[in-house]
Structures
1.
Amino acid sequence: MAEQLPEYRVPLKDMQFLLNEMSDDQGTDGVTNEDLFFILEQAARFAEEELVPINQDGDTNGCVFDNGKVTLPAKLRDAFRTYAEGGWMGLSMPEQFGGQGLPERLSTLVGEILTSANHSFSMTPALTMSASRAIIGHGSDELKETYLEKLLTGTWTGTMCLTEAHCGSDLGLIRTSAEEVSESVYRIKGNKIFISSGQHDAADNIVHLVLARLKDAPKGIKGLSLFLVPAKLKNKAGVWNKKNEVHCIGIEEKMGMHANPTCSMSFEGAEGYLIGKPNRGINAMFTMMNEMRLGASLQGIGLSERSFQKSLQYAVERTQMRSLGGVKAPEKEADPIIVHPDVRRMLLTQKVLAEGGRAMAQFCADLLDESHKPGADKERVELLGLLTPIAKGFLTDTGLASADLAIQMYGGHGFIKETGAEQLFRDGRASTLYEGTTGIQALDLLGRKVLANQGKSLLSFTKLMHVLSKKTSSEKLGDLADTLSGYSKEWPQLAKQVGSKAIGDFEEVGAASYDFLMYSGYVSLAYFWLKMANVAQELLDGTRHPNGETFDRDFLDAKVKNARFYFERILPRARAHKEMMLAGKASIMDITESQLIG
Amino acid sequence: MAEQLPEYRVPLKDMQFLLNEMSDDQGTDGVTNEDLFFILEQAARFAEEELVPINQDGDTNGCVFDNGKVTLPAKLRDAFRTYAEGGWMGLSMPEQFGGQGLPERLSTLVGEILTSANHSFSMTPALTMSASRAIIGHGSDELKETYLEKLLTGTWTGTMCLTEAHCGSDLGLIRTSAEEVSESVYRIKGNKIFISSGQHDAADNIVHLVLARLKDAPKGIKGLSLFLVPAKLKNKAGVWNKKNEVHCIGIEEKMGMHANPTCSMSFEGAEGYLIGKPNRGINAMFTMMNEMRLGASLQGIGLSERSFQKSLQYAVERTQMRSLGGVKAPEKEADPIIVHPDVRRMLLTQKVLAEGGRAMAQFCADLLDESHKPGADKERVELLGLLTPIAKGFLTDTGLASADLAIQMYGGHGFIKETGAEQLFRDGRASTLYEGTTGIQALDLLGRKVLANQGKSLLSFTKLMHVLSKKTSSEKLGDLADTLSGYSKEWPQLAKQVGSKAIGDFEEVGAASYDFLMYSGYVSLAYFWLKMANVAQELLDGTRHPNGETFDRDFLDAKVKNARFYFERILPRARAHKEMMLAGKASIMDITESQLIG
């Protein structure tokens, strides 16, 4: 038995299993799974060798703000340059703009790896790619030509400037203003907060995408326009070194993610360029936002995986008490704690959340690739729309639960900075807050993606669940298939029940939304777990031919066992959420504000 | 509507409700509830004026370790002296030793107030009182005479020295040694870690209670003895300024609780005195430990209360989006977020956990008073034994959930240190780790307090549930009474089911223990909520005469409504825990260690 496990090693075998056996997309434009896996191995090496070792240093030393300049921890800055120069930034971005044109399921895995290895590091690449997506989707040819290659190569980086001190979830309140000074050139004025990577010393220029309001624009969300505002402009000689009126006026002291600067930005009549149409900024922003939400869901998965490995490392090393089933390590004064059932319960919880979430993310990645193609199937695009708030809301929530379990696994040592367990939680804590809080995801899911859509997308997913439960042939998985089949009927029924209450009383949507989201998350993951268990069981039984690499029986058998753990030990939480969502709004809304204040 | 709520104000009305209407003990030794409430108001003023304002400063500045000396944040040190000199330390300790002899239900409320106001501050008083309890229960007359008055007046403070680097939960592994040098004098050698308040500059002397092993003592837990080891000894002139060989060799960098030093202590042949009998240290330690566990449960309650108030303050101030039920604050650009159902769900969750937990703690406090009396009823003592791991495990777990919700309520601002929401979580995070992790509480509950006791104590509690559900007369509460009645039957049945599986396979106990603990917690709080709602409803209906102060109808009505929220929106979680505990050990234990490692 290996006693010293690494701090984090990329779960390559599980990733290969998903690439080879779980995707319908087996070879895009001549790129084989072997090609993808080869690239993945390089990403793994980079993460393990360059990012993991500097993670704690970044937490301790953090970013420094001095006189308008932000300095990253030097090791992290160097790692970013290595990453960008290695050509990693634009992995799944279109080749015509300087990307690598590889499928999303590869960049999704790489995204997870980065966040597992070093949450702070992962922020700048993710934001830069989201900003690029908005430019690709809505920018003029000139903007594309001028900015995309620099962004996709990481020479420059990007940001999203939405939040202001008085508005976060409610973007309709944005006050930052834009005034046209000449055709396609605007002056941007206003203050933005919580701008991740808003200023730093790892790139030559920073391209801000800023939501602002044109003079005389309508009030609210329909009066917002999106602008591209570079920190540096081109001077007359064609050199990008002319300072724009974009200033970082401070960085936040945060709970975690110390190595990524969260900047307060002041736009003081900065030169900017319209992206898309006037007053339609929110549309362009939503393109970006949805990809960012999927990106944040990877942080949840990465957090569960890293927390699992962090816990596992300790569970095999730390000896404490004897097994309830009899002495396991007679040569030691106590058994390693991995023998204790409650320790295993925690480990397996983290593991099934990580692997189930990863399978879900791979499914979303394939849908994302489809949605980027011209003439994409509407049903598939809407299915992605349904899964996006579930992935973001549920996987970040459970990712934090995994990180919290890592602290718990370490006992008192989990509270000590040196062990690194508590950093995982602190770094990950923002993932349920930014890109729309869990509450916002829940409203988006139930209100927009389910009820406003008459449950159509939900039915297209529950149909997949139903089909999977029918085609589950192994007797070993029969009871799980029955359970999934039950949920495939119950889920849309619950939506209907809540929906009929909500007719004429939208507060019923708000009162049910969080529990509906969590229910949806647990049930979705049950689908992906049964799907994995099915494939694994077929490979074990020899009724399925592997698409490439043959997986060892231990790995496949673990998949089947872990699916059972998920169904028996995690999925029952959906029962509680069902009961709570059906309770209705009365017990929440009947109490008056003054009774709450007391 | 008050828009600026205080950071924290002591929930005096709720506390008065519990003192007057929920306790069977209405007047101990001539001390009336008015007397208790008067004292409580003084404690509230101290907490609000002295402890709340210095809480953030303590986090920022922390403790300093320099050359063996630990310096507390100066404001906290001064506050401790004020507290001690105000006579607060020995509130419920026996008068004969210098305490005030007041009932536990008062000191329990004060304990909660301290932890709500300033978690770091609350540590030293709590530890000092637990150490004192062990001396009272097991020390010689000479030890009592020499140390208790100093401790109960806070002139000196106390610690518990259990943990060593290689042993936390498993105290049987303790290596610190003790050698008798003369009658009743021993030399203590060894290293202890995680010693809260092990060194500081707020008291003249520190009295360590140290678990150590006598020469030739049996292996394991039955070879441990407890020693009293003062940091300073009396010199020949009778002055306590002779240094003992007790050294602080460092303090931990922690996730939170920065204003309380967590010390590594080195005992280098220090002079110590046996408490109780040789090799019976664990008995004395358990006296102390059980009281510490109840003390830690107060931290969970305090955390829920403080998190509720922190969230409430923001929910009435922060405006964001319009109510789903129509505009509520037309004069503002958006409605205060307290109008949103999901925000209320979070607020009410924190509120019912705090108030339900407080009622449970009051019940335990009365049992504790009874248990301190000679000839205490065995059934009542065992009932306290049953409730102790539930209170510790469940209330700290849910306290952290409340603190996590506070971060969530603040959205992105919750991640920023300045707002103070994240500090609550960081400070509270140790509460599920020390004094026995949640997993240890769960094993203690299911293994020792339920199964080893043939469910007797559990039945004495479910009998109370049954009686309460029968005597619930108001139609308004009829459905809640039925629900509670169902749980009063189900709970012992579940214990029986798990117990029969566990015959011959103790791992079944470990596999079910955590879910059994959480189930027990949710069900216990349902009892206390129905009990409060019953009293409130009777007072509203005029069928009950108040024991003192008349409570306003809004307060009583809120109690009834909150009980319903608890039953509809929190208690269903017990359903999930039931299903998970009955799943058995297979899906946890079938997977091999090498499959977990992958």
2.
Amino acid sequence: MRVGVLTGGGDCPGLNAVIRAVVRKGIQQYGYEFLGFRDGWRGPLEGDARPLDVQAVRGILPRGGTILGSSRTNPFKIENGVERIRENLAKLGVDALIAIGGEDTLGVATKLHDLGVKVVGVPKTIDNDLNATDYTFGFDTAVNIATEAIDRLHTTAESHRRVQVVEVMGRHAGWIAIHAGMAGGANVILIPEEPFDLDQVCEWVESRFRSNYSPIIVIAEGAVPKEGQLVRQSQELDAFGHVRLGGIGEVLAAEIEKRTGKESRCVVLGHVQRGGTPTAFDRWLATRFGLHAIDAVHDGDWGKMVALRGTDIVRVPLAEATKELKVVPKELYEEAKTFFG
Amino acid sequence: MRVGVLTGGGDCPGLNAVIRAVVRKGIQQYGYEFLGFRDGWRGPLEGDARPLDVQAVRGILPRGGTILGSSRTNPFKIENGVERIRENLAKLGVDALIAIGGEDTLGVATKLHDLGVKVVGVPKTIDNDLNATDYTFGFDTAVNIATEAIDRLHTTAESHRRVQVVEVMGRHAGWIAIHAGMAGGANVILIPEEPFDLDQVCEWVESRFRSNYSPIIVIAEGAVPKEGQLVRQSQELDAFGHVRLGGIGEVLAAEIEKRTGKESRCVVLGHVQRGGTPTAFDRWLATRFGLHAIDAVHDGDWGKMVALRGTDIVRVPLAEATKELKVVPKELYEEAKTFFG
Amino acid sequence: MRVGVLTGGGDCPGLNAVIRAVVRKGIQQYGYEFLGFRDGWRGPLEGDARPLDVQAVRGILPRGGTILGSSRTNPFKIENGVERIRENLAKLGVDALIAIGGEDTLGVATKLHDLGVKVVGVPKTIDNDLNATDYTFGFDTAVNIATEAIDRLHTTAESHRRVQVVEVMGRHAGWIAIHAGMAGGANVILIPEEPFDLDQVCEWVESRFRSNYSPIIVIAEGAVPKEGQLVRQSQELDAFGHVRLGGIGEVLAAEIEKRTGKESRCVVLGHVQRGGTPTAFDRWLATRFGLHAIDAVHDGDWGKMVALRGTDIVRVPLAEATKELKVVPKELYEEAKTFFG
Amino acid sequence: MRVGVLTGGGDCPGLNAVIRAVVRKGIQQYGYEFLGFRDGWRGPLEGDARPLDVQAVRGILPRGGTILGSSRTNPFKIENGVERIRENLAKLGVDALIAIGGEDTLGVATKLHDLGVKVVGVPKTIDNDLNATDYTFGFDTAVNIATEAIDRLHTTAESHRRVQVVEVMGRHAGWIAIHAGMAGGANVILIPEEPFDLDQVCEWVESRFRSNYSPIIVIAEGAVPKEGQLVRQSQELDAFGHVRLGGIGEVLAAEIEKRTGKESRCVVLGHVQRGGTPTAFDRWLATRFGLHAIDAVHDGDWGKMVALRGTDIVRVPLAEATKELKVVPKELYEEAKTFFG
């Protein structure tokens, strides 16, 4: 049996741990051969692959990123994409695929499975918004990085009696924001699931100052104000004559400063959240995902995705992962609100 | 309603996060008053307590240890212990207790509940071996500290072609060993659940050297050899004329060196694993445990313990937590073995 | 003797360590009393102070920020500012001042000294650009935070074959950029001391891609292009209809992408660099600065600043610290260039 | 010109950074070729070497340990050792050597230089006790690891009202102990330079408890009691019937517990201090050492060692490095004592 492996979408700490586990167990226990496709679906599309043996996956467990490269290539948006993949798999003698990725990558995997390609999926998203699994690897690392940043920002906010806004990742779901916000002791957490009310935010800010502390606001990049709010006109120009304005975090900080008169600053954590060595949990989860994915291949359990449920790794239909977005439940957000203001 | 809070047993990152969440929600949402008892069950036994208000729990979320102190005092082993607790609770006007602790502390809580004391429990053990909850806070921190240490030891082992033994916590269960060992890429993991065979360990060591790498062995402090093994006589003396020999890790390293001729060293991570700031996950779990514990008090749901199941916090009977030890399942240990040797 | 202590300017890890050392040694060795002025020069200006005893400085050694608060208040820009300070010092019985701060704070201290106020200075700048001392505390912490971020960004850049620009602090001097850039293995480092040539930067970027690696560019916030470069017109609009454009890092990333066709991203590390717990070196340096500052007070050595020279703490005239900016020497930048491209 | 590079003695974070800098600059600027000798002086002794090009040193900057391996082989203690080295250098066409190491490795280098071998040295010792340089790389990493451990141990000590002894590296000099002890807020620091008085130590311990805090004692592995002290007889046996007793830290903890009645524990940090990724400072210092070492080769400045003086890298005669041990000066220890008790 020759198995192809690929990683698609944004990179994520733990991808290499999955690859290593797949290859180590596949070779030692099942005697398989492995091909690593380069750059997500671009690899099988263009027949770009290299052999993966035990030596190739040595030392990669603690390394962030992916040794296979990644891309957002979608074969269904390319002429004859699926046909070309079939041809390349046949040409390279690849019997089955393990696709490690998020919504897009697994969406392609689902469709390919429906077309008869033997494929097993491993869920990956830094944002933790994939359905059917308690957590995805990479998320814990992102949350720890964001929490450490919040820890650091507390002291600066206090020393200067300043509002500190921290924009974290999360375009469609507020998982990083709510986890890091609760862990970091944020005074306000704003998530895409619940449009925020600017008056309410300013009230929390002022209440925090009244208790003689400085507020930290954690906001997901996809959070939005209630309709009609924040249509202000900024005119501050930068060195090149452009209006200087960033994402929602910066807009919010500027607006709070305008409304409350309190000095406000924004830090956008950005890509730092998704790089570097994975936490112990993410290495553990990614490794177990890899071990169970190759077991699914061995069992011929095609069209399945490995998933975490409690402390168990289970298999669910690939389609389940992408059928809806996993968002922060209302009750959890209510728990977080205990500490607002 | 006046609620007493206490922390018992070995300290653990996250204790302060529980206390803070209990007090913040209890005051803001339910209008309760709080008394913090000092040093576990010694507090109610001797009536040693201090008021806990919002100010008292400010800034403690990221701090390791416990602001209430801890001890291993067991009122059931002290004359009139239970009576004295009843009297002190009455005298101090304490209506209910939240007991945060492990097997011993919750064992006492269970018995007190049977005797009519209104008590709610929060599970705590760095070792993760309490029944009825997926994880306990503090464990993730310990695993990350151990994993980081293993990461560091790899490079030394490689540079000197040396066997490196790392002894981690876990007297009765190998949770820290197996999590940190898998996350750290250990070549052998030894846990209390499965007595090890010294010949097999040495074979793994030699196989690792044959692939031109240096072995890292992670061993739980409670791991033991198969019967009849390791009855060697060491005669190495230290500066004071004493035979120099430590715990199982050191014994194992010495034995491996004797048998394989390879230089072997042992590091005992010890108390470093249980101190300091909690990881984001542990702060999150501890905070949610605290929020749900005070809800249980509010609901009058006495004799219950909060517990993690998947991503939910649930309530289980206190007695369940201590009725048996949660050990590493055989299948999980088999997964880990994929990477041995 | 009653000594006043204040911290001015931007906050910086290590400020609390200085305060602790000053107070501990001053009380134990010399029997002094201490007043902590709030928010830099605003404190003495408005007579806003609180007593500092051993208890007040307990546990602050590892904490970032400053327990005294900070501000940029300049008494020489306020009517009767100096007079009011004199009056308040007299009223509060303060015999001498220890001023901990950067260019502005020490500039005020210098002038006050010239006017007869008994003052000793402690140099503080995250940017390391104060003259007359090898290093200032806080700088090592900032460099380590930036280096860790660069470490993390490498794996993302590689996985996506992307240009990653990292904007670090340093308005007038490139110390953080060159230290973190060299430590993080950056492929290009751009500093305020040497205006950069955009063609050259793009050439380095392309050479890096030619060796099959992805470039990391570290740029100080104060770095500027050679005259006439970068006057491009961006028209990208954000959600609020504003042109979306940030600091020099973002401008550079956009320009590189335009010129080379390679996907380019920018992360602005911002305030995360100046908060949180100090590194061991910064705690050590800050502690020693504090111990030597109170010795200078004891010796009546007014108008002096403590400074690091090699491994020694020495005293230099306050005026020296601010007489010129300490910039990155040309030879050091040449050393860094070894690794460009 | 073909240059040989070797690393000897205990491993140390930063060794790879030196190798990388030497090779990168040597190839790009001077057009040299490089051979990496394996395992310190064993490499040239046995002619065991491999070519080092730019590819071979890619990605090693942040990695601890040494890609060349290390050993304590001393050619002067082996028959015809020097002759064999000469022959191998000639056979392999090696014109000059860069020896990276501590007292032993540089001692050999000094003697070889006296015999006409062209050699340049780079000082390396985790203990920071080499003469003629302000600091050596690896030391800052060790100090940070030890400081972080002390930070963590504080909370455990407080929670349990316990004496915590932390044994750190430093056989002949107390540099790590005094730096980490001061940075970590230790209450007692014991170093080899000054034999300690047990009564005094117990007095500090008790004074700390009297202020309602728990003492942390940092002790260098080479610290010794005053003559005649600590000749106690321990009889505690371990599972194998051996007297259970470790290094000086454990002995001290046992003795303090016996004398003061306070529960006392010891953690021996051990090899964790010398492994893993270097701090930013160590990467910076190691990189600059490497750049200046290859410059010395280019200048034909044989028999020299690079050294740090303030912020400058200078060259000193190799013999100076080893002519005496650099110990903690008495005044510095006095500074640290400000915080004892």
3.
Amino acid sequence: MTQERKKQMKIVLQMVSGYGGEFRSWRLPEAKADAYTDMDLYVEMAQLAEKGKIHALFMADTPALTNHLETESPMHSMDPLIAMTAVARATKRIGLVGTFSTTFNEAYNLARHLKTLDVISHGRVGWNAVTTSTSAAAANFGQHLASRQERYGRAHEFIEAVQGLWRSWGEGVYLHDKETGQFADMGQIRPIHYQGTYIQTSGPLPIPPSEQGQPPIFQAGPSPDGIHLAGRFASGVYANPFTIEEAKAYRQMLRAEAEKNGRQADEINVFTGFMFTIADSKEEALARRRQLLEFDQDELAQRLAYLGAMVGLNFQGIDPYQPLPQSWLQLARANPGDPRSPRALEVLKEGYSPIDTLAHGVINYHPVVVGTATDVADFLQEWFEAGASDGFSIVPDLAHDGIKAFVEQVVPLLQDRGLFHQDYEGQTLREHLDLPYQYGRQE
Amino acid sequence: MTQERKKQMKIVLQMVSGYGGEFRSWRLPEAKADAYTDMDLYVEMAQLAEKGKIHALFMADTPALTNHLETESPMHSMDPLIAMTAVARATKRIGLVGTFSTTFNEAYNLARHLKTLDVISHGRVGWNAVTTSTSAAAANFGQHLASRQERYGRAHEFIEAVQGLWRSWGEGVYLHDKETGQFADMGQIRPIHYQGTYIQTSGPLPIPPSEQGQPPIFQAGPSPDGIHLAGRFASGVYANPFTIEEAKAYRQMLRAEAEKNGRQADEINVFTGFMFTIADSKEEALARRRQLLEFDQDELAQRLAYLGAMVGLNFQGIDPYQPLPQSWLQLARANPGDPRSPRALEVLKEGYSPIDTLAHGVINYHPVVVGTATDVADFLQEWFEAGASDGFSIVPDLAHDGIKAFVEQVVPLLQDRGLFHQDYEGQTLREHLDLPYQYGRQE
């Protein structure tokens, strides 16, 4: 891990269920409305991301229906494992990071899936290991949601067991030597007999190493338990801060936790979630966001009311398409209960109407840039140079044209500024992310 | 299901772990020794099978290491789900039948995997639902092997739950209508609240139907419990008889069981396992099989001893490369303890040496034809016309040249004789196998 490498940001892409981060973007003219079931399109988008040297695809997941499909597209792909496999077969360099629950999988099955995928992608797989805290998911597995303590207890064991199974086929013992007749050295393919409180598995898992040894672990979720899990295992962390200060503090905490667990701070890459709408002008970008808002008038009314509450004002009866009068803005106060409030107030004070303020994405679940490619590049540069993040998990409003805009317009700007690599540094995800080869457990 | 259709045999192909059915065939000059990890090769072989109009690939599986890799290639692919996905993306018509355990999977996860794969393959997936009776597999899941009664109790519930989840997204409600803004009709996407003794799952599984509705079920395993499971659910059965009489009786039993469960007998297709070595002459084919036997002298000695026991003779000290003297053959008796014994004795009596008798595959786990393409076609025709089987699950000794030989030499013979289709009858696996569209549970 050289200093040189550390100076450039790493970027992973979220296509969500194939549309992007805005759950009504499927209605835009640019959208392919049945993208959810269209694997050809999914693969094409991944190929475009690879052309833009995006480090990896990142797929969130919860094994349950988690939003209302009457008007919204799904929050997750039909199946991340199958999407990753399809993309792996049609790309050469881009990494593939999938979210798989430690609560709602069997360790042996998941170890097998991910190692196989790592072998056939020639070392490009990462595993975002999450405990899953959704009751609807638990119900799909005939369970009530276990306590946080139990879920994290199981998560630690689950990762240990998976990494143990990954190592149960020794390095360098896949011989397939026609002369001697030795296919493998069975002395180095051994059961692990893992006996935890939550997980027991014998092994061996009969799969040889990939080019990167085994997939790196990612983590998401800012609880103390989550940070501890990341400190022990994670090479990448998916983070959700809304401000640079929050992001810096979180990153420092993660780096300290890695060191506390006997690892190098630089072994953890923090990827901050970030959403964008790119157009030729800011006004054009805002117009697209207004359209997304207007697709659902009921929800828009709710969002306006919430925006009012964020800045201490009652928006009942106002014309939301007009900027607020100065007298109102002087009374407005950012609500400390929502970290996004200062940004909302700032936009209102810039003279944007409540609708246009919402169109800035001020109540999205990530920071949002709505504007030109330069606006997006500027944002990423500011956060990166402030030490807020090692990289970004970018989420286009609509993937079907958003990836193209990012790859063709933002990536060259970042490259010109020396902030983003000109090409993949190697063949494997570990090489892309400047992580050491790893095979088996780290401890 | 027309009579016309029923007159032709259906063929599925087993590539086993990528080499074929002989676990030392990886040492043959024609073999690619690292085929186990070579997904490109696996996909190429599937494409060749599709060129030959093979109805489907069939992948057996046990989630455990089940043979000795010191000298043998593995019994199973690294991961059938990932292999099926890779093949699905690179082919258009061939079906994909994978074996997945009802004991060592979560119903929700497997329902999701298989339905997703069915959607992206446009309706080409089948599921061979097995209970798995291997202790080593149980140990990989922290379990002791459950009783047969429990395993089959769980299997019935597991299939019911999976089919319930498959139907939990209503037909025709994936609307994605940009004009009305309705993405799906949530009134028709409903939990199933399945509450069994072994399986509980709520759903819904948020995935729309494939072109065939949902994957057909396959079954394997000749116990009364297995036959009952097939009678309730199976559209295809993988069978292991050694003689035509045995096969006919088994097929009749399955057909009767389907009717007992309120289904049409023709809804069950029996696929008999069958292995082959094809060469330009029988002697050449036998030479290849001798080479396979000679790769392991210790095992060869054991096999010779077993062959002796099968025909009531002691082979200690004989020259196994010489035919047995007439005096010995007159004393020989087929051992009733092994259904393969009459065939072994028959070959010895034809004047083949013990080695060449073994080279005929008389103690393989399926009937074997070692000879020319015509010999193979004759065998399949005899069994098919005798009513022994609706089709065959063919296993080449080495897939790397065996599929080519079958597709290029045997398939045209079968087609010329009117025994095998000239092209796929439709787009989906159900169409290929003459099965009705199905969505949800049959009962």
